[in-house]
Specification:
Blueprint lengths: L8 H27 L2 H17 L1 H5 L2 H21 L1 H5 L15 H15 L3 H12 L4 H8 L3 H22 L1
Helix pairs in contact: 1-2, 1-4, 2-4, 6-9, 7-9, 8-9
């Protein structure tokens, strides 16, 4: 197997290993100096060496040219990360922020309106609506609890909901 430049893959891997041994620690210290982030420095060094591996001509240069190329790539990676949208929108913190809760004002306002509207309809209609909708009971269960026929429950639900709708429309 050969590379783009005709050098055997094993030779290229050995050159990259030698490059990492010779320069990785110095690049890591340089990146830590620039960023103050030790974990981030590991990522930058890894990406710098990956780019060197993808650029076979770098592995064939002399040691001084290679070293300056590696430091330039590392510096550009740090700059790119600093300019990235992810970096601008993330803020490190020692504590997790409190979980944001939805504003329940609208729900509270709606429940007050429904309560007032329910108070404005007849007691028999209100009892059926409360048992069926707020109690989560079936027609048969409501009929048993209120001791009325199922047909009457259906009728009271129909007319009660109609009255409730009108009362809510009046309230806006």
């Amino acid at each position: 197997m050969s590379t783009e430049k005709g050098a055997p893959a094993g030779t290229r891997s050995e050159a990259l290993r030698a490059l990492a041994d010779a320069h990785a620690a110095a690049i890591w210290r340089y990146v830590v100096h620039l960023t103050g982030d030790r974990a981030g420095a590991d990522d930058v060094v890894q990406e710098t060496l990956l780019r060197a591996w993808r650029t076979p001509a770098i592995l064939e240069q002399g040691p001084e040219g290679t070293r300056s190329w590696l430091f330039t790539v590392a510096r550009h990676l740090v700059i790119d990360e600093h300019r990235s949208a992810r970096k601008r929108h993330e803020f490190p913190t020692d504590e997790l922020p409190e979980r944001a809760e939805r504003d329940r004002t609208d729900a509270l306002f709606e429940s007050i309106l429904v309560e007032e509207a329910l108070a404005g309809i007849g007691l028999e209609h209100r009892a059926v609506i409360v048992h069926a909708y707020y109690g989560g009971k079936s027609i048969a269960e409501v009929a048993r609890e209120l001791d009325i026929p199922e047909g009457t429950v259906k009728s009271r639900l129909h007319y009660g909901l109609r009255a409730l709708r009108l009362a809510l429309q009046e309230k806006g």
